[in-house]
Amino acid sequence: MFILGIETSCDDTCAAVLKDGQILSNIISSQIDLHQKWGGVVPDIAKRAHQERIMPVIETALKRAKIKIEDIDLIAVTKGPGLSIALSVGLNTAKELAKKYDKEIIAVNHVEGHILSNFLTNSLGKPIRPFLFPSLALTVSGGHTKIVLVNDIGDYQVVGETLDDAAGEALDKSAKLLGLGYPGGPVIERISAKGDDTFLKLPSPIADKKILDYSFSGLKTAFYYQIKDWPTEKINKHLSDLAASFQTAVFSTLIRKYSLAIEKYHPKSLLVSGGVAANLTLRKRIRALAKSYHLPLYLPFKKELNTDNAAMIALVAYYHFKKGESSLVKNLDIDPRAEL
Ligand code: KG4
Ligand code: ZN
Fold first, then answer.
1. Contact partners, residue 255, CB within 8 Å, separation at least 6
2. Cα-Cα-Cα-Cα dihedral of 137, 112, 69, 17, to 10°?
3. What residue owns the CA closest to ligand 1's atom 23?
4. May I ask the CATH class of domain 135-298?
5. Rounded to whole angstroms, how far apart are CA atoms 17 and 187?
6. Which residues neighbour ligand 2 (ion) by CB within 5 Å?
7. Protein residue with its CA nearest to atom 21 in ligand 1
8. What is the DSSP string of 286-314?
9. Beta partners for residue 106, in sequence order
């Protein structure tokens, strides 16, 4: 079965083709260059860029997969959460194609896409990743930070989530404060490598061990107050130390609540994904955590499958279709604040 996936929830224009759940093509057109000078995603600019790029991106995905649109069995498109005007471009394109070529559509939750991105495989079906449910998923990106108990495909329980900023958003905002540009996560990762992460003492948000939720805005504020009166030369001199301190504070918070959740829910496996999970330091810490609990850990098998992509959206549709869930096919409105 061939599925065409479409994803336009934020600032990446994406299309992918999957055959029986395996990736044949996965095209991502990043808009970072357009938003960089504004220090964040500008919705109107994102919308226009999605409109210009979506058809060429879909055509490239089909071409790479060596398939014609007529041979696609199903179109999968992100319905939310995300930016309304960006989501509309993907959904409208999916509807137009579905009408023109008489195809069915499945509208997919973006966060479910990130969770299932851990099960993506290449065209040879590798890596082999059996379901080991219940799983505990940690999804960390620019828009969301959630710990989700996955009982089965489609059976999700959010057991912890951020009460304010997402982890990626916190990294992006602190990078902006340090004048490092957008998106902050990758820059912070790069310059942290040379820094002393004990340089700045930062708080551990929500110390209560019974609470599995996150909060990153206090961390960001504490960071801001510690350096706000510093002269620029001092900030520049300690840029790596500041970046490393902030990054470690964010990652330690992520790990702390995730381990509490592991102890509470006793999962059979761990799933970690989302843009921030592309970070090698975080991956190393997560690997050590999984090892300490003797739990199998699945991370997306390629770096670009951590950040937004359409292969994960198509995979969600594949699993739901296999379960015979036709109700998903019917609801084709965008849902910018969609819950899992
Ligand atoms: O999953 P994603 O592409 O989009 C959302 O759904 O939000 O995640 C983007 C976020 C941004 O905040 C970005 O700074 C962060 O992921 N990010 C990283 C890295 N690469 C992207 N954070 C830390 N280290 C990275 N290498
Ligand atoms: Zn995302």
1. 285, 286, 289
2. -10
3. 185
4. alpha beta
5. 31
6. 141, 308
7. 275
8. HHHHHHHTT--EE--SSGGGTSS-SHHHH
9. 76
Question: How would you classify residue 177: left for phi > 0, otherwise alpha for psi between -120 and 50, otherwise beta?
Answer: alpha
Position 104 scores a pLDDT of 93
Ligand at shortest distance from the CA of 312 = 2
Report the pLDDT value the prediction gives residue 33, as an integer from 0 to 100: 87
pLDDT at position 41 over 90? no
Tell me, which fold does domain 2-127+304-330 have in CATH? Nucleotidyltransferase; domain 5 (3.30.420)
Question: For residue range 186-235, what is the model confidence (pLDDT) as tens digits?
Answer: 999 999 999 999 999 999 899 999 999 999 999 999 999 999 999 999 99
Cis peptide bond upstream of 130, omega within 30 = no
Task: Compute the distance from residue 4 Cα to the ligand 1 centre, in Å.
Answer: 24
Ligand 1 centroid vs 27 CA: distance in angstroms?
17
Please report, for the chain, the start and end positions of each structural domain, with discontinuous segments joined by +. 2-127+304-330, 135-298
Any idea how long the chain is?
Answer: 340
Name, in order, each residue with C-beta under 8 angstroms of 71's C-beta and a sequence gap of 6 or more: 2
Q: Which residue has the tokens 């912890």?
A: 160
